[in-house]
From TrEMBL:
Annotated InterPro entries: HotDog_dom_sf (IPR029069), PAAI_dom (IPR003736), Thioestr_dom (IPR006683)
Organism taxonomic ancestry: Bacteria, Bacillati, Actinomycetota, Actinomycetes, Mycobacteriales
SUPFAM superfamilies according to UniProt: Thioesterase/thiol ester dehydrase-isomerase (SSF54637)
Protein name: Thioesterase domain-containing protein
Keyword Hydrolase applies: yes
């Protein structure tokens, strides 16, 4: 099932292939996307897919008058994942999620991502359950909207920010098409932003490129785009073989809304 272009899922080409409380599957076109900071190929769209398919399996386990809010996302990439994606132009990455363990006040979705027969990543999404809020944004009725461009920066409504220090910054402009049903920046969009600045911070601190190996995200509070909203990353460790970066999504109110840690290897 494709989605309208003026929704986060539709903008990034996600299609839901199957959904039930036992198994969900979805795809995203990930080949050819470039990091707007470095200009290098990026695996960031995989975080968008994980947030969707992992959150969807948790959402299908909700009870009457319950709603889900993502609290954690963890993405683990196989060695050579970027090369596999690049070698299959036009082939979408497919994510399959299943419930892991029991449902309580929170639930965990376990995901596997693949390109054809090659598994490129595993991931988890943890969601907690709240009372379904009033005033959810109405879903568009039928196909609607248009794409703002074809580059990842255009799709995400981001641009490289000025910084006088060692930090890497992407500014998150306001765009209603990037918001979820409760009116804040979609968790998958924000996770992509965190991966982009985190990987760029490590590449900018080394002579040899790093490849993202893992991304671990903690959603702290709603993240609103516009104003001073931005993604920020600083390298914590840059070694001969590995690097670690700390990243933040700072909302338009100046508060840190999301934290993540990215680990990469040469």
């Amino acid at each position: 099932m494709p989605y309208p272009l003026d929704t986060p899922l539709g903008r990034f080409g996600i299609e839901t292939l199957q959904e039930s409380p036992q198994r969900c599957a979805a795809s995203i076109p990930a080949g050819g996307m470039l990091n707007p900071v470095t200009g290098a190929p990026t695996i960031a769209p995989l975080a968008m897919l994980v947030d969707h398919v992992g959150g969807l399996i948790n959402h299908h386990r909700r009870g009457n008058r319950e709603w889900t809010v993502s609290s954690e996302l963890a993405l683990e990439l196989s060695t050579g994942a970027a090369e596999v994606i690049a070698s299959h132009p036009g082939v979408p990455v497919v994510g399959v999620s299943r419930p892991m363990g029991r449902k309580g006040n929170a639930a965990l979705g376990l995901c596997e991502l693949s390109v054809d027969a090659d598994v490129v990543a595993t991931a988890t999404v943890r969601s907690f359950y709240i009372t379904a809020p009033d005033g959810l944004t109405a879903w568009p009725d039928g196909p609607s909207g248009s794409l703002p461009g074809s580059t990842l920066a255009e799709l995400m409504a981001v641009h490289v920010g000025e910084t006088g220090g060692a930090a890497t910054v992407l500014v998150q402009r306001a765009d209603p098409a990037l918001n979820n049903s409760v009116g804040v920046v979609h968790g998958g969009v924000a996770s992509m932003g965190l991966e982009l600045v985190g990987s760029a911070a490590l590449d900018g601190s080394s002579d040899t490129g790093f490849r993202t190996a893992s991304l671990r995200v903690n959603f702290l509070r709603p993240f609103h785009g516009g104003g001073e909203a931005h993604y920020l990353a600083k390298p914590l460790h840059v070694g001969r073989s590995s690097g670690v970066a700390e990243t933040q999504a700072v909302g338009r109110d100046g508060r840190v809304a999301i934290l993540a840690r990215l680990t990469a290897y040469r």
